[in-house]
Write a structure and sequence with these properties.
mainly beta; Immunoglobulin-like; 4 domains; six-stranded mixed β-sheet; 2 helices; 33 strands; 53% strand; rod-shaped
Amino acid sequence: MRFSLIIAVLIMPLTAVAQLTAPGSNAVRYTAYPSNPGVRDPVFIYCNPTGTRLGTLNAVSPGGTAPYNYTWYKWSDATGSFSQLIKTETGVMSSSANNLDEGGYRVNIAGGGGYTATLTGWIFLDKPYALATLMNRTCDYVALSGKVAVDTFYYRDPSGGNRVRLPNGVRFRWSSDPPSSIPFPEIELNPLTFSPPLVDVTYKLQVTDSFACVSESSFFYESIHVKADFSVSPDRGDAPLEVTFTDKSVRAFKYRWEFGDDTVSLLDNPGQHIYYIPGEYTVKLTIESELHCIDSMRFSKIVVNPSALQIPNVFTPDGDGFNDNFVVASQSLRYINVDIYSRSGLKVYSFDGQGDRLREWTGWDGNVNNSSAKAAPGIYFYIIKAKGWDDVVYDNKEYRGFVYLYR
């Protein structure tokens, strides 16, 4: 008996709750009537993006003995009461009112044994507003313009008919497809970006209100913006250094390449450019579109090595693939002359070259004057004269010395 009493106490609050629902509604809030704050009638929100949606209310008696009679009324501002008859259903377990406009609704319920109950609820059809447009654009920026609005809803205090505002707020967010830079997309309603898109995008403004109802507006944006861009290969080496420039610019129509050595090209892809003088060079590309938008890019830096010589003092032309030739390691030389003599003063090797001949030079292989006769192991005397592309002359006693040939 004690156990049954506990169960009954637990169930009673659940069955005593007024059963008024709104199938398909998106949110529910509750009234705060100034005349009777303790009464909390449901306020049902339907998201209405197309403007054609209507509401539905279902009523189930919170008590009494079935069957029931249901009489539906709508709030009338003219009378300041729930006086507009909607429909009546008799001898049923539950009742529904369909295709309901915005407003307040009350259903009176009568059951067996003189039981009566009243359920009250409000319906609002929510349609936030968003409008995304282009405010302005230049070569350097894009300015977006957004307009947002949310519905303001009022229900009535049944005692006196005074309006009571239902709180509603708004959030918005800008985006684009494909993604591009939009500064403060959830803060600035009219954002301006100085990183404009280089491809065509669709800008979208999305508005969400306190009831999670959403509105979107978008527009297609055709990019006019330009970007100067290019790649460099190689960016370092000996003179004469052949550098390939490959254009990667966006929407370029006119070109001006400044190579840093007082030369200029107006070609879109200048191909190879040769740097003869050792040093460091900054390259600048300036482009202009057909709409006269301009951008530029600098590349720092291209390094052309200074001239230098390194002379070995021993080599071993024994055919093992290691140190087989007497080679003067050099960089950025304009030309070189090498003469090698035996201890008796006989010239056994001579080389004089520049350009491709110098680049292809592999050194003295240890044979006498490029013949098949092999020079004997021992000490040989060399005289080297050279000049770098930086006009450094190599022609003094430092470039006269001995090399040891081992086999």
